[in-house]
Structure formats: structure tokens, C-alpha cells
């Protein structure tokens, strides 16, 4: 389960940003999860709540945006969205010549704080 490590690293960044902005409390966190990150959102939510205990972010509201599985098809020269990350064929021309455009990581998009 790599979600716990991702949450620990995210909390480090959150606490640094909160301290830099004079926050007393973090009330909201917006995360963007890459389509090919292999992150399970339920596990991420559970781990985030666990990691945040005793921190400025304890009890904050977590918002998760799941990025779509977007790829560039070399054959038909179009951006396509895959319905499943397991299917690696272009839905337009059925080519397997796809370049992944979607991220495979997790980003902190926004923080909401109380000063």
C-alpha cells in the first residue's frame, strides 16, 4: 500500500505551506490523482485521515480529483481518453501505438487554511 507514503509526503508539503502562510489550521486539501498512478482513492482517504492525526490538517476536508486516462494515438494523431487504464488500444482506430499523456502521480492542487 503506497498510499500511506504518498499521504505522509503530502502532509509534509501541506505543513510547510501552512507554516509559510501563518495558518493555525488546514481546513481543506484538494488532490489530483493521475489516471495511471495506481492509487486507490478509498485507501488514500483512509491513509490521509490517519496521517493527519495530531497535525494542522487533522479533520480537514479532502477533495480528490481523478484524472482521466488520456493518451496520444500515433496512428490516428488524436488525443483519446481510455475508458479503462487496463485497455491500451485507441478507441478510434484500435491501434496499440499510444503515448500516455495522463500523469502517474499525485499533486496537491489547493489548500484551504484558517489564519
Descriptive overview:
By secondary structure, the chain is an alpha+beta fold. The strands form 2 sheets. A 3-stranded mixed sheet has the order 2-1-6, with helices on one face. It has a domain at 2-68 and 103-114: hypothetical protein PF0899 fold (2-Layer Sandwich). The protein is elongated, with a radius of gyration of 17 Å. It is built from 2 helices and 6 strands, in the order H-E-H-E-E-E-E-E. The model has no long low-confidence stretch (mean pLDDT 90).
SSE order and pairing:
Blueprint (H helix, E strand, L loop, with lengths): L2 H18 L4 E9 L7 H11 L9 E6 L2 E5 L4 E5 L15 E3 L5 E9 L1
Parallel strand pairs: 1-2
Antiparallel strand pairs: 1-6, 3-4, 3-5
Helix pairs in contact: 1-2
Rg on CA atoms, Å: 17 Å
- Rounded average pLDDT: 90
Query: Strand order across the biggest sheet?
Result: 2-1-6
Could you say what the CATH architecture of one domain is? 2-Layer Sandwich
Largest sheet: 3 strands, mixed
Summarize this structure as a short list of keywords or feature phrases.
alpha+beta; elongated; 2 helices; hypothetical protein PF0899 fold; 115 residues; zinc; three-stranded mixed beta sheet; metallochaperone activity; three-stranded antiparallel beta sheet
Structure, briefly:
This protein is of the alpha+beta class. It has helices spanning 3-20, 41-51, and strands at 25-33, 61-66, 69-73, 78-82, 98-100, 106-114.
Amino acid at each position: 500500500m503506497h498510499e500511506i507514503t504518498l499521504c505522509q509526503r503530502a502532509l509534509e508539503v501541506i505543513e510547510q505551506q501552512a507554516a509559510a502562510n501563518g495558518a493555525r489550521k488546514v481546513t481543506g486539501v484538494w488532490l489530483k490523482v493521475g489516471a495511471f498512478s495506481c492509487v486507490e482513492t478509498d485507501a488514500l482517504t483512509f491513509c490521509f485521515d490517519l496521517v493527519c492525526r495530531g497535525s494542522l490538517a487533522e479533520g480537514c476536508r479532502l477533495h480528490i480529483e481523478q484524472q482521466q486516462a488520456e493518451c496520444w494515438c500515433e496512428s490516428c494523431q488524436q488525443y483519446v481518453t481510455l475508458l479503462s487504464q487496463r485497455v491500451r488500444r485507441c478507441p478510434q482506430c484500435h491501434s496499440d501505438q499510444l503515448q500516455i499523456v495522463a500523469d502517474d502521480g499525485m499533486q496537491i492542487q489547493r489548500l484551504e487554511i484558517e489564519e
